[in-house]
Structures are given as structure tokens and as C-alpha cells.
Design a protein that fits this description.
Number of strands: 14
CATH architecture of the largest domain: 2-Layer Sandwich
Radius of gyration: 22 Å
Largest sheet: 9 strands, mixed
CATH topology of the largest domain: Dihydrodipicolinate Reductase, domain 2
Order of helices and strands: HEHEHEHEHEHEHHHEEEEEEHHEHHEH
Shape: globular
Number of domains: 2
Helix content: 25-40%
CATH superfamily of the largest domain: Dihydrodipicolinate Reductase, domain 2
Strand content: 15-25%
CATH class of the largest domain: Alpha Beta
Number of helices: 14
Length: about 375
């Protein structure tokens, strides 16, 4: 992804951004940047080398884009903020929720822009879904069921890099590599859940030590419940999000929203009908409509452009860096729940319970790595 981001910037697809330097170039992806290197864009061995050259004034630098192994995101971001640089980091913010918190606090101290790559927030279908949910038109949330099994990966994906699929270097499997997008969508659309029960199968479909098959049960403050299922070993797989609200069922799949409203049929709100109806066996079919959306053709360019606009004072980022802490907290809680075989309370940010949660999760993860 780092090579892709750098190519977009070098090719002039992001207004207000110029490619100043590159680091950690590794084959086979480094070939994408031959033109940039040939044009004189310097290549450094490490982020520290870049920061040193910038501090000496040799390299003109305003911002960094971090697309390195997850465990290193925090260290690079903190150093960037110390050097007065703006930061766009790929997801996830790190491996531990503490890392995301540290990055957020460092950004606040520095006063610099802090953004995260949550490109699915650019999807028209999710933007419309969020608009519908926030309008309150269909009442409170009852249930969320999301099956995301279209993250299929072959065995060679995991052996293509020494850090992939290891607890020590990668920090996890599908929950940390692919599903952060979906976990971000869950909290972005429905708010943070307050409890989770996780079931992670490690090496279920692949010869790896981390999880490639996950089922998680979620609860929200208002009593709504949910199930999240994801894996990298099912083909062709599916991506189906079903939402139950007081006045409608919404099914999000293949760029479409199917909305089944209850009021036209019941002529009253469902909670009232449920209490008052004497028709014991009536099936509510719902009044169904459908909205179709095209895919966002350039989601990553939109993310980079919004970051550039915020750095240049002409807009705001699609996802502030602090959002990375939320999805990471959910995945950390799912892991911890699976390892300890119990329901986990997701703590309130800034509370003593959050610090205790961080310590417990890190302890358990280090035991595995």
C-alpha cells in the first residue's frame, strides 16, 4: 500500500502534495516507484534517517504517510509529531489500543494533523446508510448481523513477508489486517459497542499462528445486539450487513440498500403494534424499496486528498486519527475475550478501566508472541 500511496502522490493525483522521500522500499512493489527514484526522489533506509535529514534542513518535509508493519506505526508517528510533521497512518493505528491512544495524545500536543486511512468511509452506500441511521427515521437499533467472508487470501499471501501472520511482528490475523475497515464501519455507523464475546480460530484455514476465522457477539448500551463474522479462508465469500431497527430492516449488500419499512403495513409503530395486536400469527412482510450505488472509483485518492486539504487549511480529513483507537479497542476486546473465554466490557475512553484493559491485553498478547 505504501508504494500505491507514493505512486499516487508522485503521479500528481493528489492536489497540494509532492513526494519528498521514500523509505523501506522492498521488492516486488518497489518497481512501481522506479520513475520516482529516477527523477531524483531520495530513498532512505529508515524513518529515522528521513527525520534526521529533515531536521538538518537537507530534506523539506511537511508530512509523512505511514504504511509499515503495524507494530511500528506508533513509534514513527510519535517521532513525526515531535518533529512538527503532519501524519497519515494506514490502518490499524497499531497493535495495542494503547498505541492508538499515545498517537492521539501526541497529535494533540503537537497541534499537527493526524489522519488514518479508513477508505471505506468514502463508499456511497455506507455514506447513505449513515445518513439514514443518523436521521432516526426508523427508530433505535435492535440488531446488527455482518458476515464478511470476501477477504479471501491464499497461503502465499501469508508467506510473502516475514512479518505477516505472526503475533510478534504482525500482532494478529484477519482482525488486524483486513477487518479494521469493517470494525471501523461498525462503530462509525452504530456507535461503540459496550460488550463483546469473541471466538477466534487460529490457523483454521491456513498454516499460520494467528486467527483467520472470527465470530464475535456484540452488545450496545441500548440493549441492541450484533454478530460479526469474518474470515480469509472462504470462497467466493460474501459481504452482507443486515440491520434491524424499530421501524425497518435494512440489508446492505453488493452496493445496494434494501429497506423494508413496517409502518405502511402496520399503520403504527412496531413497538406499539407488538403490545396491542391480537393477531397472534400475523407475518409482517414489510414495504420494500431499494437504493443502488456505484462504487467509489478512487477511495484511496479521496483519503489522501482530504489529508492534503486539511494540512493545507482547505478541508478536513475523511477520518481523524483518533478514530483508529475505536476499531482497535474492539479488535483488542475480541482477542482478549477469545483467549480468556469470557465476555469483555469495552471501557470508556480516559477511564481507569481503559488503562487496566490495555495492560491485560498487552500481557496476554506478549504471552502468545
Amino acid at each position: 500500500m505504501g508504494s500505491k500511496y507514493a505512486s499516487m502522490i508522485f503521479d500528481g493525483k493528489i492536489k497540494g502534495m509532492e513526494l519528498a522521500a521514500l523509505t523501506r522500499m522492498r521488492p516486488p512493489y518497489s518497481g512501481m516507484l522506479n520513475a520516482a527514484v529516477d527523477s531524483g526522489v531520495p530513498v532512505f533506509d529508515s524513518a529515522d534517517d528521513i527525520f534526521n535529514e529533515a531536521e538538518k534542513g537537507v530534506l523539506k518535509l511537511d508530512a509523512v504517510v505511514i504504511a509499515t508493519p503495524h507494530i511500528s506505526h506508533e513509534d514513527i508517528a510519535l517521532k513525526a509529531f515531535e518533529h512538527g510533521l503532519n501524519v497519515l497512518t494506514d490502518k490499524p493505528s497499531g497493535v495495542y489500543s494503547r498505541q492508538a491512544r499515545n498517537m492521539e495524545e501526541a497529535a494533540e500536543r503537537s497541534g499537527k494533523v493526524f489522519s488514518i486511512v479508513f477508505n471505506q468511509r468514502t463508499s456511497p452506500v455506507y455514506i447513505k446508510l449513515k445518513e439514514i441511521l443518523e436521521s432516526g427515521k426508523y427508530g433505535e437499533l435492535k440488531r446488527v448481523n455482518w458476515i464478511v467472508t470476501d477477504w479471501y487470501r491464499p497461503e502465499k499471501y501469508y508467506t510473502s513477508s516475514s512479518w505477516h501472520a505472526t503475533w510478534k511482528k504482525d500482532g494478529g490475523g484477519v482482525l488486524l489486517n483486513q477487518a479494521p475497515h469493517n470494525l471501523d464501519m461498525i462503530q462509525w455507523l452504530f456507535g461503540m459497542p459496550v460488550k463483546v464475546q469473541g471466538f477466534c480460530k487460529e490457523g483454521h484455514f491456513h498454516n499460520i499462528e494467528v486467527e483467520d476465522d472470527v465470530t464475535a457477539y456484540l452488545e450496545w448500551k441500548n440493549g441492541a445486539t450484533g454478530v460479526f463474522i469474518t474470515s480469509t479462508g472462504e470462497a467466493p465469500g460474501s459481504n452482507r450487513l443486515e440491520i434491524s431497527l424499530e421501524e425497518a430492516t435494512i440489508i446492505c449488500e453488493n452496493g445496494r440498500l434494501r429497506i423494508g419499512e413496517t409502518f405502511p403495513e402496520m399503520q403504527q409503530k412496531e413497538p406499539e403494534y407488538r403490545v396491542e395486536s391480537t393477531d397472534y400469527f400475523r407475518k409482517i412482510n414489510g414495504s420494500w424499496s431499494e437504493l443502488c450505488f456505484e462504487k467509489e472509483p478512487a477511495p484511496y485518492e479521496k483519503v489522501l486528498q482530504s489529508f492534503s486539504d486539511e494540512c493545507n487549511g482547505s478541508g478536513t480529513s475523511i477520518a481523524h486519527g483518533s478514530e483508529g483507537r475505536k476499531s482497535l479497542m474492539i479488535s483488542n476486546a475480541i482477542y482478549l475475550s477469545s483467549w480468556e473465554k469470557r465476555m469483555i466490557d469495552i471501557p470508556v475512553f480516559g477511564s481507569l478501566q481503559e488503562l487496566e484493559f490495555e495492560q491485560e491485553f498487552e500481557k496476554r498478547l506478549k504471552e502468545r508472541g
